């Protein structure tokens, strides 16, 4: 996502989650969900590290609501297991999957890290 910080545009990565890519199934809906959560609202952002693409990896809250947790609860993102073993977040993902909300309405949703791997290898992702 992009945020305006101190008057300048900055690309950010939400911590602990991975959402569908824009061209991937559910990508545009995940983006819409994120916009609903944060668009033109004051957000609280904390970061301690930067990813390999130079983006701050952030924890973001809006009115006390953790944006990463809410995206997972809505079925708009996966827990990024390579970087998070947060039991609360894993529980929210399991509940979304069991309730078949968001991307979990698909029979076999493809995690974005797998979709990106197929793209890198030049394979057609479903």
Automatic annotation (TrEMBL):
Residues 1-106 form the TNase-like domain. PANTHER family: EBNA2 BINDING PROTEIN P100, SERINE_THREONINE-PROTEIN KINASE 31. Pfam families: SNase. Keywords: Endonuclease, Hydrolase, Nuclease. The keyword Hydrolase applies. This is Thermonuclease family protein. One of its GO terms (molecular function) is hydrolase activity. Gene3D superfamilies: 2.40.50.90. Transmembrane segments: none annotated. InterPro entries: SNase_OB-fold_sf (IPR035437), Staphylococal_nuclease_OB-fold (IPR016071).
């Amino acid at each position: 996502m992009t945020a305006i910080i101190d008057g300048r545009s900055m690309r950010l990565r939400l911590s602990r989650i991975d959402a569908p890519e824009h061209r991937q199934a559910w990508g545009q809906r995940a983006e819409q969900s994120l916009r609903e959560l944060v668009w033109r609202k004051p957000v609280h952002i904390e970061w301690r590290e930067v990813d390999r693409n130079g983006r701050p990896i952030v924890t973001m809250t809006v009115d006390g609501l953790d944006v990463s947790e809410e995206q997972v609860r809505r079925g708009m993102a996966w827990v990024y297991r390579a970087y998070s073993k947060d039991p609360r977040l894993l529980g929210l993902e399991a509940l979304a999957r069991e309730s078949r909300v968001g991307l979990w309405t698909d029979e076999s949703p493809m995690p974005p890290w797998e979709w990106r791997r197929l793209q890198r290898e030049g394979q057609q992702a479903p």
